[in-house]
Write a structure and sequence with these properties.
With about 250 residues, the protein is an alpha/beta fold. It contains eight helices and eleven strands. The strands form two sheets. Strands 4, 5, 6, 7, 8, 9, 10 and 11 form an eight-stranded mixed beta sheet that branches. Strands 1-2-3 form a three-stranded antiparallel beta sheet, with no helix packed on it.
Length: about 250
């Protein structure tokens, strides 16, 4: 009986060890050259791809375009206050990356009458919506650009500011996109991310659609951007500002 009990214990231990190995394999695959990891067991709101420990959220499709124009954004996100905090100059060239329907693009266009807003999105349907609204509203300084998952297709050293509003956490290739954005920035150019504050569990947004200031700063530092400041004057979002290092001798 003693031998039988010992055998059962060994069988049970072997089963547990086998199960642990299976879970480890299922949860975590090897990191690739870009620092991404993949897990087959993951959040239903994510794509199973992780960057610097953060799971990347699913992209909001063009089918949700009307949600981007919902009236409560005026109070929840306060777009005019957010834009004012960016301290735009009339001649600025701005890339609105993940522009969607242009909710921020058109508002910023009014602030840069001698400048331009490059409204970047990876969905052709969103580009169609932008083109329709440009013609309908007779706006002359918003230019839609169809980007890809890895490249926003912005000319090198062409922009003063890159803005991402509740979009960065959905980028399937954040390192590649941000590397191209840094290349597109003029020396001393800025990056602004608006993200719902992960630090506050009471904000009624899905977890993968929030980001902490600490995580954002870590990911932006990886592509050479310098943190300038974090503004938390909005009800629920961080406004986190970064800068591309200026040229030597430049202010």
């Amino acid at each position: 009986m003693k031998q039988r009990g010992t055998a059962i214990r060994w069988i049970g231990l072997a089963f547990i060890l086998s199960w642990m190995v299976w879970v480890a394999i299922a949860l975590l695959q090897p990191t690739n050259a870009q620092g991404y990891t993949y897990r087959s067991i993951h959040s239903p709101d994510g794509i199973g791809k992780f960057y610097m420990g953060r799971e990347i959220a699913k992209v909001m499709g063009h089918q949700e375009a009307l949600w981007l124009e919902r009236p409560e954004r005026l109070t929840r996100e306060q777009p005019q206050e957010a834009i004012a905090a960016l301290q735009l100059s009339p001649t600025d060239v701005i890339a609105d990356v993940g522009a969607g329907t242009g909710y921020f693009s058109f508002r910023m266009a009014a602030q840069v009458p001698q400048g331009q807003v490059l409204a970047v999105d990876i969905q052709p349907e969103m580009i169609d919506i932008l083109n329709f609204l440009i013609a309908d509203q007779q706006v002359t300084n918003v230019q839609p650009i169809l980007g890809s998952e890895t490249d926003p297709h912005l000319p090198p050293e062409s922009i003063d500011l890159a803005l991402m509003v509740d979009a960065y956490h959905e980028f399937a290739y954040p390192q590649e996109i941000m590397t191209h954005i840094v290349d597109a920035l003029k020396p001393g150019g800025r990056v602004a991310l608006l993200e719902y504050r992960q630090e506050n569990p009471l904000i009624p947004i899905k977890g993968l659609h929030k980001m902490s200031q600490r995580q954002v700063r870590r990911e932006m530092a990886a592509v050479g951007l310098e943190w300038l400041e974090t503004l938390d004057m909005l009800p629920q979002q961080h406004v986190i500002l970064f800068q591309k290092p200026p040229l030597a001798g430049q202010g």
